[in-house]
């Protein structure tokens, strides 16, 4: 899936309201995934923007939120979800907060159609240009890579079935009369 935006954001925990710095990646399919660091090995969480996001607020619109120490209120970003919960973030700058809001709203409203390529019609993708290549001014690069945490429907169904079977087996095992 195409990468829309990535970068460091501060995220406020839902229970203790402490601020933690995470590496965020927003994909075009509407997945906002946050990781422990920029290696993207340990996923801390995911928000499905297309399905869950109701509104995005920035700056002074984020009422009753105190930014992390040393940060301005103008850097705040709140993603209001359909279930009534909120995810509060803080960008490095006011401009970065505006850029994240625009990217989230774009990912929320952009229709994505996932379909496999037709048989025999494979397009050759040129190799990555490397760090020393220069682009013309104003050229936007989009990095396309597979979302490693994307789960297909059949994988989800198989996982639910395995969980139900394990729960049933453990439940019957725990109620055996030999446990006296």
TrEMBL record:
Keyword list, A-Z: Membrane, Transmembrane, Transmembrane helix
Protein name: PKHB1 protein
Annotated organism of origin: Thryothorus ludovicianus
PH domain: residues covered: 2-109
Pfam families in the record: PH
Subcellular location: Membrane
GO CC term (a single one): membrane
CDD domains noted in UniProt: PH_evt
PROSITE patterns: PH_DOMAIN
One annotated GO biological process: regulation of cell differentiation
Residue ranges of the TM segments: 157-176
Chain intervals for the UniProt region annotation (Disordered): 113-132
Keyword Transmembrane: yes
Recorded name of the encoding gene: Plekhb1
Ranges of Basic residues composition bias in the record: 115-126
Transmembrane as UniProt keyword: yes
Top-level taxonomic group: Eukaryota
């Amino acid at each position: 899936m195409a990468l829309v935006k990535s970068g460091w954001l501060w995220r406020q925990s839902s229970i203790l309201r402490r601020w933690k710095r995470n590496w965020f990646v927003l994909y075009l399919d509407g997945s906002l995934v946050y990781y422990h660091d920029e290696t993207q090995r340990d996923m801390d969480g995911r928000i499905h923007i297309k399905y869950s996001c109701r509104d995005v607020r920035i700056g002074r619109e984020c009422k009753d939120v105190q930014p992390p120490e040393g940060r301005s209120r103008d850097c705040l970003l709140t993603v209001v979800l359909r279930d009534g919960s909120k995810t509060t973030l803080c960008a490095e700058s006011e401009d970065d907060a505006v850029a994240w809001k625009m990217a989230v709203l774009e990912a929320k409203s952009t229709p994505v159609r996932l379909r496999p390529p037709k048989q025999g019609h494979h397009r050759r993708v040129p190799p990555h240009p490397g760090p020393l290549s220069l682009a013309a001014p104003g050229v936007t690069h989009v990095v396309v890579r597979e979302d490693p945490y994307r789960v297909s429907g059949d994988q989800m169904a198989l996982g639910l079935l395995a969980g139900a079977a394990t729960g049933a087996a453990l439940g019957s095992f725990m109620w055996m009369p030999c446990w006296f």
